[in-house]
Design goal:
alpha/beta; 7-stranded mixed sheet; single chain; binds pyridoxal-5'-phosphate; 11 helices
């Protein structure tokens, strides 16, 4: 029997009545666009801010835009350098280049694949303006160490929390610790829309205002364009759907953690290496990733048994063609290089059954 990598259909069937009603309401109200002035958008923004325990949430079109708008709102641009981890989805570094700044890559930690805080300081110089830690796979980066460095060198911190809706760091939700937190609501994320969507969050009302303006053509009041912005609004349908799904996020994250525990217990004392969340953090397992020695063999077993898997990510960012101009060699990022050759992401979603996890585990432990 096929085991999917993620299953958005089960979730829809369960919430069909609520989601269909939410979609219907938006259509009845013709509340399609409008950003902040759309009541569905405003409701979701308020509820998501409440969920995170932060003052402001600004919806936007997707998680990549969220990072770009965050950088612009903080005044990062041409000539600036921004520190990013060597392994992430490309959005993290793409957004830096999009505002005219230069991405400066830092190697990752062996234990959880988040940015290696011991290797950040050597990359800081006069041009460094910001750090974007990524809470990869739903693990929290070491935020105390990052905020300490930020304070020491007067740097801005944007937490790329696209894979970490609800992840906790010392009792706080990630995304609320730096100057801005950014989220993606791409359908497959822990909190996913039915299309592209994203947001940024902050406690600072000046940053919130600036971000809101940038995301909506530089206006807060219609036709009063205080600056040139862009069009990156969260739409009514996505907001209404997200508002329904947000009510289940804690429960889903809990189930993901339970599933990860079952996987972890199967892999202890085997040739499969597991990653470990830092002490004081509560991960949300957007992905369940392990390290294996003979990845091709494992891939073959999974394929033969009709079990979907992924690799997140097969090439560290600095080694992509897009960044060949930086002339990096594998020796510059030894951990990212090693990890990217061994990682494999196994099926992970809240409704994944224990039987299926045990089946997958036993199959690849052999
Ligand atoms: C998904 C993701 C993004 C981008 O989100 P989109 O909504 O697809 O633009 C950014 N960073 C990370 C780490 C992601 O996983």
């Amino acid at each position: 029997m096929k085991i999917p990598f993620a299953d958005l259909h089960i979730q829809y069937v369960k919430l069909k009545n609520e989601i269909d009603a939410a979609i219907n309401n938006v259509i009845q109200d013709l509340a399609f666009v409008g950003g902040y002035n759309n009541k569905y958008v405003r409701s979701f923004e308020e509820n998501f801010a409440k969920f995170l325990d932060i003052k402001y949430c600004v919806g936007c079109a997707n998680g990549t835009d969220a990072i770009e708008i965050a950088l612009k709102a903080l005044g990062v641009g041409t000539g600036d350098e921004v520190i990013v981890p060597a392994i992430s989805w490309i959005s993290t570094s793409e957004a830096v280049s999009a505002v005219g700044a230069k991405p400066v890559f830092v190697d990752i930690s062996k234990s959880d694949c988040t940015i290696d805080i011991r290797k950040i300081e050597e990359k800081i110089n006069k041009k460094t303006k910001a750090i974007i830690p990524v809470h990869l796979y739903g693990f929290s980066a070491d935020m105390d160490a990052i905020m300490q460095l930020a304070k020491k060198y007067s740097l801005l911190v944007i937490e790329d929390s696209a894979q970490a809706h609800g992840t906790e760091y010392k009792g706080k939700k990630v995304g609320t610790i730096g100057h801005i937190g950014t989220f993606s609501f791409y359908p497959g994320k822990n909190l996913g829309a039915y299309g592209d969507a994203g947001c940024l969050v902050t406690n600072d009302d000046k940053i919130m205002n600036k971000a809101r303006m940038i995301a909506n053509h530089g206006q807060i009041v219609k036709h009063q364009h205080e600056i040139e912005g862009r069009n990156s609004r969260l739409d009514g349908l996505q907001a209404a759907i997200l508002d329904v799904k947000l009510r289940y996020l804690d429960e889903w994250n809990q189930l993901r953690r339970k599933n990860a525990e079952i996987y972890d217990s199967l892999f202890r004392n085997t040739k499969i290496e597991i990653f470990k969340a830092q002490t004081g953090t509560v991960p949300v397992y957007h992905l369940y990733v392990v390290k294996v020695k003979e990845r091709e063999g494992i891939e073959k077993i999974l394929k033969e048994n009709n079990i979907e898997f992924g690799i997140h990510y097969p090439t560290p960012l600095p080694f992509l063609k897009a960044y060949s101009y930086l002339n990096h060699s594998t020796a510059d990022f030894p951990v990212a290089d090693e990890v990217s050759k061994k990682i494999i992401s196994l099926p992970m979603f809240p409704e994944l059954s224990k039987e299926d996890i045990v089946r997958i585990g036993n199959m690849i432990c052999k």
